[in-house]
């Protein structure tokens, strides 16, 4: 049902898109902005161009949805250029100036609240976000032959911080980041993201050297959008939990440090609680099986080709997985 509703959403106009989801029973008739935002954030099959058009509509409801959608992306600890990169990969930016203005205003408010950096207020962050997009276009468009220099970038951004100049080193950081790594926005051939790409947006590390998975603040607290949302169980069953479990499993298999493993298994615990709270027994069974597989207890003593598996007692990943499987079975099974 989620895939069918997403396909209908992708084929309709923004002003009718919400009714498509309501008609499919995926959103209630009296839908709240945070419920719509949660669905948009958790459903990778949606056409990102249609989503961008929807989020940029001028009505009070659409503005509220945009605010909740931006809040769901979590810019904590991200400098402006990194937050903007993450933001612009979650949908396709519309072409109309007024729509861009509304979207960047919402971004600036959220980003400044999460990490103000050198900015006195969100107005400066808004101007810098717009300037960063222009810099990205200038430096990486094949149609621009004379590229913007750093001196020109500095000159373009004088007195934007409540009448004051930004530190030169801050502007240099932004200029170099964009020059070395283009903010690649979705084009017409990439109107939807794969599940893997969407998961990457949620777990990608903001800074070099940081763990791939952000720390879970509390295993007793679910994301507020999920708590407040009345999204149907089909969304969790078809999209959210399978993709999350798959991503967490990949992280566990690739991790080689205790901190990352700890965060990943905290994620499994959250998935378990979410599945249990919605009586999704098949998803709980799948989660326990996945953890048991990671524990190596379901595999023979030798792997393919006769290679011996590490002893269980000295295999940190396997021991943590076995412990997590037992905890899920005991507390939520």
TrEMBL record:
Cited SMART domains: Sec7 (SM00222)
Pfam families in the cross-refs: Sec7 (PF01369)
Listed GO CC annotations: cytoplasm; endomembrane system
UniProt domain SEC7: residue ranges: 13-181
Listed GO MF terms: guanyl-nucleotide exchange factor activity
SUPFAM superfamilies per record: Sec7 domain
Gene3D superfamilies: 1.10.220.20, Arf Nucleotide-binding Site Opener,domain 2
InterPro entries: Sec7_C_sf, Sec7_dom, Sec7_dom_sf
GO BP annotations, alphabetical order: regulation of ARF protein signal transduction; vesicle-mediated transport
Name this protein carries in UniProt: SEC7 domain-containing protein
């Amino acid at each position: 049902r989620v895939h069918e509703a997403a396909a209908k959403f992708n084929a309709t106009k923004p002003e009718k898109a919400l009714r498509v989801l309501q008609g499919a029973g995926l959103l209630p008739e009296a839908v709240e902005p945070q419920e719509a935002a949660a669905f948009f954030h958790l459903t990778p099959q949606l056409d990102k161009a249609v989503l961008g058009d929807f989020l940029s509509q001028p009505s009070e409801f659409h503005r509220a949805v945009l605010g909740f959608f931006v809040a769901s992306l979590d810019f904590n600890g991200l400098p402006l250029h990194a937050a903007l990169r993450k933001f612009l990969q979650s949908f396709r930016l519309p072409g109309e100036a007024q729509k861009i203005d509304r979207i960047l205003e919402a971004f600036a408010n959220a980003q400044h609240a999460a990490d103000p950096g050198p900015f006195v207020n969100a107005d400066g962050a808004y101007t810098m976000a717009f300037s960063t997009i222009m810099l990205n276009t200038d430096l990486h468009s094949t149609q621009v032959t004379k590229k913007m220099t750093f001196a020109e970038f500095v000159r373009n951004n004088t007195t934007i911080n409540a009448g004051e100049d930004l530190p030169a080193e801050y502007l240099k950081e932004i200029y170099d980041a964009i020059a070395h790594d283009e903010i690649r926005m979705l084009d017409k051939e990439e109107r939807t993201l794969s599940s893997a790409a969407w998961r990457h947006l949620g777990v990608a590390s903001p800074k070099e050297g940081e763990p791939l998975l952000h720390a879970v603040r509390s295993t007793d607290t679910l994301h507020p959008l999920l708590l407040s949302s009345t999204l149907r169980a089909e969304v969790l069953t078809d999209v959210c939990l399978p993709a999350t479990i798959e991503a967490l499993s990949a992280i566990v298999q690739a991790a080689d440090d205790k901190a990352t493993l700890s965060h990943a298994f905290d994620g499994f615990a959250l998935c378990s609680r979410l599945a249990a709270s919605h009586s999704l027994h098949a998803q709980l069974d799948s989660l326990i099986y996945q953890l048991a597989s990671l524990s190596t207890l379901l595999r023979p003593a030798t792997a393919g080709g006769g290679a011996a598996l590490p002893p269980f007692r000295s295999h940190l990943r396997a021991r943590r997985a076995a412990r997590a499987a037992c905890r899920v079975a005991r507390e939520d099974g």
